[in-house]
Amino acid sequence: MTVLRSVCGLGVAGALGGVLTAALVAPVVSGGGMAAMNVANTFVDLPPAPREEPLAQVTRLLDKDGRQFAQFYEANRTAVQLGAVAPIMRKAIVAIEDARFYEHGGLDVRGTVRALLTNTQAGGIRQGGSSLTQQLVKNILVESARSDAERDKARAPNLARKITELRYALALEKKYRKDQILERYLNIAYFGAGAHGVEAAARRFFSTSASRLTLAQAATLAGAVRMPYSTDPSLGRAQQARLKLRRDLVLDRLAGLKQITPQEAAAAKSAPLALRLRPEPGGCEQSAYPFYCLYVQRELLSNEVFGNTAAERRARMTRGGLTIRTSLDPIAQRAAERAIHKNVDPADTEVAAEAMVEPLTGRIRAMAASKRFGRNPGNNKNGPKTTFNLPADVAHGGGQGFQAGSTFKVFTLATALQQGWRFGDGFQTPGELVPGQGYRNCAGRAVNDPDSRVLNAGGEGSGGPHSIETGTWKSVNIFYMMLERKVGLCNVVRTAKSLGAVRADGRALKEVPTFTLGVNEMDPVTVAASFAAFAARGVYCRPLAIVEIIGRDGRRTHVPPACEQAIERPIADAVNHVLKGVFDKGTMHGQSIGRPAAGKTGTNNGYTSAWFAGYTPALAAAVSVGDIRGSYRFPLQDVKIGDQYFGSVQGASLPGPIWVESMGPALRRVEPKGFPGPNMARFGGGHTPGLEKALAEEERKKRQGGHPMGPRHRRLFEWLLGERSLDHLLGSPRRHGHHRAVPRERIRRAARG
């Protein structure tokens, strides 16, 4: 009946109504008899309701505890049901936009005539002429437009557009109940300040929700809809003054309709706007955790699971209204950020990055870097910001990565243990090695390099006996080059691949003799995930940031871990046993997190980069350090990083301390747990000729101070040679740990411990 009343009202609204109707219809009809017929056809033979595309809504990123840390949107909108909108807000929007909304059927002739008279007398817009349903139609046509031409047509200020709009409005009234129309209008309307829909407007204007709006707040938002740009409160005082006038107009209208008392209206009008403008940043640059945000964003845009085409995936991310639950742990994240920023300044060209990964799930718990994410002033390449996702690979917005150094020795270690080597097994090593024979890649082709000469790093000696254990603890280059040759280069490569080792740039791994010394460029997420597999007793899990996706309809899609048993449990247990010794007897001696841990340092040839990768049964992490301008052109020698000077940066001197300082706080709520012991019947024992005698001699020298000048004078001598930092000279080894400094040497393509 309401639609019929609207149509009939065109002819019975009085003389002025007839004039208005004629003005609407005259331009599109001609002839007396034909005019009546066309009018009847126009308003009785209605089209289907307009096509409604899903409204663009905000996609939100949540941490593991459900707290939002980023959002993406094309339009800042969160659709809500009518029941989630305060009743006073519903009354206010109806009062000012269409007071007879619940009485007419899409066209309110009486209201249109009244608005025409009111606005003419006032000399401006005081009341709207279109019904609320007509306004909804206009918004639907604009939202669903697929081109600029369609959008312009939906906004065109002509009578043809008004006729089309009216016919669609009548069709909508037949399709939906009044409350359904009001709900759609409240969710589609633009309120200003970038807020689309009443929920986003409540958050943006007053830092509240639509369900908790007060009388004054509801009147403010209702007043903003008519002129959202000239009353945008984020633009300044002039706009806020106009917004207050509109608010007071709504309050008067509510009182005139007896929706509120005159006293309530007067009290609300006497109050200030009381705005609490809440920023609604979009994208990763303004996120609390930008590097993690960027990783998730790249995953959404590149993974075909989220859409068949790039355009479809981007539209789903920016318009889909998704809720993305991630595995980000704010405690671990803040711990990583604090440790990095304590040691490395954002303005340094040397950059540090860290990723933390949970064993058995692959869930990425933290991603941090020493630089802030974003563009530097003037788009300068060097500065406190970067647009590279430093903890990640190229596919997730990262750079080319840094050579992983001696962290790759763990793959050779695992391969040797798999082939039956025991902890005590070893051999004599020379003072230098030319990899001229015995190395074949996985294609069966010889990849020997007779033109290279590999030396041990400083502190490893000029040669001698080493076992699986001592060769690992001291990170002896020549020992591991020889061990790789004995167990087979291809076998080591296969072990690395099974544990997720892939280059940061996505290219194939370089299968060369110095593979075990870490010549491949890696990223912290990938390295942390590989080491997490040892903590998980051989189970490798792909790095995972997205845990669950909740659609706008509430449907939940869980993203399970992608894991497989990459190496046998006993092998992983044996690797853990050896790598624990890195803290007790090796390159990280003197540095501890106060609970069982295992790990491996990595320092590259020429000090181009430095790493530390380590883990506990509950968490794995990898830290990289290198110069963002280019690791080969700018090695980590004679550099000031943060407030410390380094003669050379090694795995134990900067990445190691960052790892220690971050892992302790990250695990503060996790009960300490040890690693399962190795199968000593399988891995215990072994023999290395001459090792026992060499260790005894080393211990004797250690008891005697190991240097005719004594420890204190020795530190001075090493500082003069550039082998120690000033920190060591002053007797403050906390920052660098008790590591062995590495002098400059002429070595080609060889990584260091």
Report low-confidence residues grouped into runs of 5 or more. Answer: 1-37, 706-726, 728-752
Output mean pLDDT: 86
Rg (C-alpha, Å) = 35 Å
Number of helices: 27
How would you write the strand order of the largest sheet? Answer: 2-1-5-17-18
Proportion of residues in β-strands = 5-15%
Largest sheet: 5 strands, mixed
- The coarse silhouette is elongated
> Helix/strand/pairing class, anyone?
alpha+beta
Pick out its properties:
single chain, 753 residues, alpha+beta, five-stranded mixed sheet, five-stranded antiparallel sheet, 27 helices, 24 strands, 40% helix
Structure description:
- The chain contains 27 helices and 24 strands.
- It is α+β, with helices and mostly antiparallel strands.
- The chain has a 5-stranded mixed beta sheet. The chain has a 5-stranded antiparallel beta sheet with strand order 7-6-22-21-20.
- β23 and β24 (644-648) form a beta hairpin.
- α17 packs across α19 (477-487).
- The relative contact order is 0.09.
- Mean pLDDT is 86; it is low at 1-37, 706-726 and 728-752.
- Keywords: Carboxypeptidase, Glycosyltransferase, Hydrolase, Multifunctional enzyme, Protease, Transferase.
- Residues 356-618 form the Penicillin-binding protein transpeptidase domain.
- InterPro entries: Beta-lactam/transpept-like, Glyco_trans_51, Glycosyltr_51/Transpeptidase, Lysozyme-like_dom_sf, PBP_transglycosylase, PCN-bd_Tpept.
- Residues 729-753 are annotated as: Disordered.
